[in-house]
């Protein structure tokens, strides 16, 4: 593995160019208008895995977007690493906030990335991080230093809840059998502070609809006499938190894992500047559940947030109307022991119960997943730690992430193996937001680091 840094340096421009071509394809799984593009992205990923040296590459159809499977089995007596990633991306809206078109990648310097960052939807989440593994595989096969067996499973529905992945995993346990699962869909604390994600929050995502009168009404003739669905919905949403920003749904916290003071003290050792955090977001104060720090609120505590709300007239000028319906999309990030289906039902029951007379409420569950915690004493974690030490020159810090990868808990349930989360993104990369980007340095550093994971995992595996 010692010549990996030279290989990355010699192939730097090609690695960047290949990623840029992948980022040009608008693989938006949430929008059927991009269906053909999303299928085309699966083809592009499959072709890249063939070129990287995989012996067997398949595009596996599902009821939605296909799953790209690939493998290279060099010795059945050696361990198997299963790499998971996704090729679909979030919608780029709102488009007017992008500084450059989301599917026309550009490289620009930033304060954190003076060497340049690739700006495009999917640059970090997850095309850039997924493609690091493809290029790491290329290095190991071309230099005849692949130390173990490798399988890839790259899906196209992660951003819409991995709708068909569960069925695929259950029906292909033997094909997907492995000794450890490796994912790069998370981040690290800073460019000079590597970290390994040891926990993910679960997720429950719902849409709510409040219906008042059977048609839109004149606000002068009917205002004050008929329930306004927009007014009602905003009041109902506001009631979901109390004055301490504690979620008010009965039973919501019953199974929440409470970390000990010792564990919280260990978390607090991670480098963090509250002033820098506020400055980066252009806010003058943080906000959240009383009794917890910012890093605790966004990782070990559950949350409830409105992701979208719409109704009535929003065009130019005025229209005096009481809308017939009002809508909102709401996500709840969950911590270990909270079951997402149970929480979804608790929300549904509570939201229906707090609706006043004069309106009807409909709660539509969308998707969800369980939280996950991986132990730091596993062989996989130790191998990842040694890999970071090799290329960063320092031991990575274990940290829990506020994000969700719902299928991770499914992997352990169905495949009986642990997942290692080696992320190379940064909080400032604006994933899911306008101007998403991924530092060129981070991208190349990931390619350099990943092969060492294979080396150390093979050495440590018994």
Describe the structure.
The protein is of the alpha+beta class and 462 residues long. Helices cover 32% and strands 21% of the residues. It has 14 helices and 18 strands. It has helices at 4-10, 12-23, 35-51, 127-142, 165-171, 219-222, 229-238, 261-267, 274-281, 294-297, 340-353, 379-392, 407-415, 440-460, and strands spanning 56-60, 67-72, 80-86, 106-108, 117-119, 149-155, 180-183, 195-200, 202-211, 217-218, 303-311, 321-322, 325-334, 360-369, 372-373, 397-400, 419-421, 437-439. The strands form five sheets. It has a six-stranded mixed beta sheet with strand order 1-2-6-3-7-17, sandwiched between helices. The chain has a four-stranded antiparallel beta sheet with strand order 11-13-9-14. Strand 4 and strand 5 (117-119) form a beta hairpin. It is globular, with a radius of gyration of 23 Å.
Please describe the structure with a list of short key phrases separated by commas or semicolons.
alpha+beta, 4-stranded antiparallel β-sheet, 462 residues
What is the topology, as strand order, of the major beta sheet? Answer: 1-2-6-3-7-17
SS content category: alpha+beta
Determine the fraction of residues in helical runs and give it as a percent range.
25-40%
Shape: globular
Summed up, the helix count is: 14
> Low-confidence runs (pLDDT<50, min 5 residues)?
none
Mean of pLDDT: 96
The tally of strands reads: 18
Strand composition percent:
15-25%
- What can be said about the biggest beta sheet? 6 strands, mixed
- Rg computed from alpha carbons, rounded to a whole number of angstroms: 23 Å
Euclidean distance between termini CA atoms: 21 Å
């Amino acid at each position: 593995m010692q010549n990996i840094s030279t290989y990355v340096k010699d192939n730097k421009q090609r690695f960047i160019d290949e990623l840029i071509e992948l980022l040009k394809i608008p693989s938006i799984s949430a929008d059927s208008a991009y269906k053909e593009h999303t299928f085309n992205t699966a083809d592009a990923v499959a072709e890249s895995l063939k070129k990287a040296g995989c012996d067997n590459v398949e595009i596996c159809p599902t009821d939605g977007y296909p799953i790209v499977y690939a493998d290279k089995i060099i010795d059945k007596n050696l361990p198997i690493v299963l790499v998971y990633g996704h090729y679909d991306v979030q919608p780029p809206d709102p488009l007017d906030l992008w500084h450059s078109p989301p599917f026309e990648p550009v490289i620009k310097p930033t304060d954190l990335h003076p060497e340049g960052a690739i700006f495009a939807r999917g640059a970090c989440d997850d095309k850039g991080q997924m493609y690091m593994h493809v290029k790491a595989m290329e290095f190991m096969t071309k230099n005849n230093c692949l130390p173990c067996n490798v399988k890839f499973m790259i899906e196209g529905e992660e951003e819409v809840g991995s709708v068909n992945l569960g069925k695929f995993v259950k029906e292909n346990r033997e094909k997907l059998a492995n000794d450890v699962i490796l994912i790069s869909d998370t981040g690290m604390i800073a460019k000079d502070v590597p970290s390994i994600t040891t926990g993910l929050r679960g997720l429950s995502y719902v849409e709510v609809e409040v219906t008042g009168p059977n048609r839109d009404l004149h606000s002068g003739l009917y205002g004050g006499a008929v329930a306004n669905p927009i007014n009602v919905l905003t009041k109902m949403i506001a009631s979901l938190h109390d004055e301490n920003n504690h979620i008010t749904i009965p039973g919501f916290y019953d199974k929440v894992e409470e970390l000990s003071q010792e564990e919280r003290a260990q978390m607090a050792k991670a480098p963090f500047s509250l002033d820098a955090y506020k400055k980066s977001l252009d806010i003058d104060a943080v906000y959240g559940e009383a009794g917890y720090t910012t890093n605790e609120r966004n990782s070990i505590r559950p949350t409830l947030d409105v992701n979208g709300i719409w109704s009535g007239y929003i065009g130019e000028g005025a229209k005096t109307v009481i809308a017939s319906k009002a809508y909102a999309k709401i996500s709840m990030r969950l911590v270990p022991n909270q079951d997402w289906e149970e929480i979804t039902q608790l929300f549904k029951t509570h939201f229906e119960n707090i609706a006043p007379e004069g309106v009807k409420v409909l709660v539509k569950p969308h998707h969800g997943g369980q939280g996950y915690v991986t132990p730091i004493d596993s062989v996989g974690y130790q191998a990842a730690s040694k890999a970071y030490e090799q290329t960063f020159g320092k031991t990575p810090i274990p940290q829990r992430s506020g994000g969700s990868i719902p299928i991770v808990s499914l992997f352990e349930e169905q495949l009986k193996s642990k997942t290692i989360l080696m992320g190379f993104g940064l909080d400032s990369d604006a994933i899911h937001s306008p101007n998403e980007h991924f530092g060129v340095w981070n991208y190349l550093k990931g390619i350099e680091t990943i092969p060492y994971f294979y080396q150390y995992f093979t050495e440590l595996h018994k």
